[in-house]
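My current task is to audit a protein record that another person submitted. Thanks in advance; the entry in question is below:
***
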Amino acid sequence: MDKRAGTWLAALVHCGAPMPTKPIKPLPVVVLRHDEPGGHQHWDVLIARSPNLDGAELERSGLIGFRVPSPPNQALPGMVLPIIWTPDHDRSWLTREGEVSGGRGFAWRVCSGDLHLVNAAVVQIDWHGGQQSQWRLGVQESKPALHIVA
């Protein structure tokens, strides 16, 4: 099983983020709807490793990503969404949308916000539209899953 499946702290650290020694600043997050060739679609959740980077550090910092089968920002408390961890995405996806390289379709921005680490297990996302979500990483049927807390 992927080491990122345990907790948000484990996921962030496994993906190269430094281990926080004090409360971390909110991390930018974006949800993209990825329309694939052939009519299939999924949603990509992309999370910045650091709240504010500049210069060369910014260029080296990809986005932690996972894919879900439905929009996680619209999921109701108690829902569980299976996730598939994806390779890092370019940080430019925080603010852009459009054609995905390699003829893999198009990505459309659904929403963005700020991810706050509530504790090692739970994050809260303050969506820029005014809504909030709370998520917990977990496992369902021995596969990584996103549990919607609130």
